[in-house]
Amino acid sequence: MPSFDPVAIRSDFPILSREVGGKPLVYLDNSATTQKPLSVIDALSRFFSHENANIHRGVHYLSREATNAYEGAREYVKAQIRVPDTHEMIFVRGATEGMNLAAHCLASRVSEGDEIVLTIMEHHANIVPWQVLAAKTGAVLRFARLRDNGELDLDEWKSLFSARTRIAAFTQVSNVLGTVNPVVEMVAFAKEREVLTLVDGAQALPHGSVDLTEIGSDFYAFSGHKIFAPDGIGGLCAPREILDSAPPYQTGGDMIEKVTTEGTTYRKSPERFEAGTPNISGAVGLAAAFRYLEGIDRAAAAAYEESLAVHAAEELVKIPGIRIFGTAPGKAAIVSFHYSAAHPHDVGTILDTEGVAIRVGHHCAQPLMDYLGVPATARASFAFYNNESDVEAFLRAMRKVERYFG
Predict the structure, then answer these.
(1) Residues 206, 227 contacting (CB under 8 angstroms)
(2) Number of C-beta neighbours around residue 25 at 10 A
(3) Alpha helices (H) in 260-363, listed in sequence order
(4) Which domains does the chain have, with CATH numbers?
(5) In Å, how far are 251, 283, 288 from 40, measured between CA atoms?
(6) Candidates 364, 392, 400, 405; catalytic one
(7) On the CB side of 135, how many CA atoms lie within 13 Å of its CA?
(8) Bridge partners, 235 (sequence order)
(9) pTM beyond cutoff 0.90
(10) Using CA atoms, how far apart are residues 192 and 188, in angstroms rounded to an integer?
């Protein structure tokens, strides 16, 4: 049975034992990338030490082993997130490439005057591909706004749909606000109107289990490096019918069926969209990360993360001039804030002198920053390997910031 012991879990992550500037590392930049457990590191080492070879078409033993590891990783990950039988999972470099690929696959289904519904809380990766598509096709982007607590204004979002709406793309969890969107309800609403949906799951999988048969979206994108796996790997889950009818995204390698001097035919998905030598070791590491997560009580871990974030936020607002963005109920363990007395980059720099790693800037969400009326925020984001000592170190460092600038 999965269990959750935060003390034991912390020991699984070697990097957390190091020091920065002579002080214990306090890593609170988990929304940008997560640290890797020893089991993932070992899985990569085993692959490179014992199985490394190129996949598919190789008749020698190592190639067969590497192919089995790669395709086995795909099937294991699909089972872990319950990819529907009608869907395929394409290995991509991350959620960003996944959403670009989705926009590419849907280009022929959008015409001039058609509409694409987004939210103002989206990451650039779920805005820019649709802007590019709109520029090519003459489609129109429509953005739903938020309530004061950072919740999506669901009524307004629904009101944006019209007879010309073709696509609705939205994040499951905001990387800035921590807001958890009601994606099951949103997908169902769009389906009733025959609108295709894409869910950006990059920030959702780190904080809990995901069941794509329950969500029901047409497309779902995620990144491995957000969920304790290597960087440069992720997945795009999408209907085979759409994937197999879309033109190739890149060409060459195993996506080819037959090449002649007169032309080329292409394989079906997933190979159709995995040109060249893929990130074989990344897929192995991704599966290892999911295996690690399988042994953790994700609900208990999420509750623990939330308790850390709530405590940090409650103490943080005691500093005059601190404003926290995103207070929606049930939000993920992300605390984004602005300190009126100092620029976020100054805040982050001082925290770094105390060994505390946070993220500062616009977090690839400039439309949201404009909407909130700030150029940037500071963001502390928590994972289940963080602890109360991390929170206290963060708060002590913030009091140092207050002494400098307050």
Answers:
(1) yes
(2) 17
(3) 280-294, 298-316, 344-353
(4) 6-32+297-405 (3.90.1150.10), 41-294 (3.40.640.10)
(5) 31, 11, 5
(6) 364
(7) 6
(8) 91, 222
(9) yes
(10) 6
Residue 388 CB neighbour total at 10 angstroms:
12
Task: Bin 197: left if φ > 0, else alpha if -120 < ψ < 50, else beta.
Answer: beta
Q: Residue 319 gets which letter from DSSP? A: S
pLDDT tens digits, residue range 294-307? 999 999 999 999 99
Amino acid at 344: P
H or E stretch at 335: strand 334-339
DSSP string across 139-200 = -EEEEE-B-TTS-B-HHHHHHT--TTEEEEEEESB-TTT--B--HHHHHHHHHHTT-EEEEE
Cα distance between residue 207 and residue 203, in whole Å: 7
Residues in the chain: 406
Reported for 369-374, long-range contacts at CB under 8 A and 24+ positions apart, including other chains, are 371/120, 371/145, 371/146, 372/325, 374/325, 374/338
Q: Which residue has the tokens 């993920």?
A: 332
Please give the angle made by the CA atoms of 140, 325 and 115, to the nearest 5 degrees.
10
**Whole-number Å distance between alpha carbons of 361 and 124:** 13
Question: Is 237 one of the catalytic residues?
Answer: no
56: left (phi over 0), alpha (psi -120 to 50) or beta: left
CA-CA distance, 34 to 81, in Å (whole number)? 19
By mean pLDDT, which of 1-5, 46-50, 143-147, 337-341 is the weakest? 1-5
CA pseudo-torsion sign 280, 281, 287, 293: negative
Pair of tokens at residue 299:
């609900």
Which ranges constitute the DSSP H helices of 203-297? 212-215, 240-245, 280-294
Helix (H) or strand (E) holding 219: strand 219-223
> pLDDT digit string (tens) for 100-140?
999 999 999 999 999 999 999 999 999 999 999 999 999 99
Cβ–Cβ < 8 Å for 80, 141: no
Distance CA 27, CA 67 (A): 35
Q: How many angstroms from the chain centroid is the CA of residue 275?
A: 23
Q: Which residues contact 70 (CB under 8 A, 6 or more apart)?
A: 55, 278, 280, 283, 284
